[in-house]
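Z., the sequence and structure:
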Amino acid sequence: MIALTLPEPLMLALRWALFLGPIALVLALVRLRGLNRRAQIGGLFAFLYGAGMIFVTHQVALHMGWWRYGWDALMLRGMPVDILLGGAVLFGPGLAFAFPNTRPLLICLPIVIGLHGTIFSSLEPLVFAGPGWFLGVVFVFALAHIPAIYLAKWTEADTHLGARCALLAVMTGTMMFALLPSLIMTAMGGDWALFERPLWSYALALPLLAVTCLIGVSANQMLCLEGDGTPIPLDPTKRLVRSGIYAYVSNPMQLSAALSWLILGAFLQNLWIMAAAAMAWVFVQGMVRWHHRHDLLKRFPDGWPEYKANVPEWRPRWRPWMPETATLALPHGHWATRVFAAASGLTLTHGPATYTPAHNRHSYAGWTALAMALTHVNFATALIGQALLLIAVPLQRLCARRASAPAPA
């Protein structure tokens, strides 16, 4: 280890350098490399993902005693906010822009072994290393930094759509359920105190949160599967999505956020977090409606007005609005035939279990076919179907990738 004995003023300067340095680096790289719009969007996504995941992983590290930070200024639950933001910039867009042709693991491995392996435990009073600090560093890099760099690179190249949407879902979740509530409680009062909550409150809150999160995550997946895009307007879908959860409510992610904050606020007995649900409503009334008027209407002039007139923003329909007809093939005498006999926008035929959407670009087989068909019955079965899709689609694609992999020599 390198034994550093820097005085506190220099440590304070180091703290500011860790915040301002990465910002200056990114701005310089954007200008010098002439990065295109997709690269800059990828950098923004990487920063937002990193900010949420750095906060979450550092909370785990602080709880495990892997390290702790000194001073009390600009702290959020034991972590310096400037280091949080600087780290999200550096280990996201910073390294992605600086090493555009290098794999993220190869970028971060020398940093983990070299920089942290030599001076991390010698940075007092900036940070006080505890037992197992190196394991904590690997933990943070594996869950926060390396995925952030991948997200930036994949977004710039417009590849790995499924993985990008999954990382964006994680980004949204950490913002909604960790970073934003912590900011609210730091500013307005309150505490997580998770181990002090009664068991009955968990029994009530967790199932409700599971349902509300399912609505939002399922919307993310449908935009990926049926729209070939992400839930973020900066990286939009190529097609208008009106199937799945979108056949019942037009703003499922905002609905998910509002309901989740209400439930989380009630669980934590914090009215300010419950009041954050109003942010989702304001977001819909302002940004989302503006986006719909100026983007979706322009890109989908034939489909959006009709969809908007039939599918509400906040109160889900019980029966789906299906203007187009999909096809479900089932073996003769299959048990599911009765379930889907009265489904909306679904034609039944005989054959191996296969679901073919109206656009006929691709089809779903086996359990994924039945899961897609469940979204045609009613809102309750649609939630069941969407939950199955969250499991079945990744497994199906993983199996397909393994089947197509060349056999070892």
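The chain has 13 helices and eight strands. The first helix runs from residue 8 to 33.

Let me know what you think.
H.
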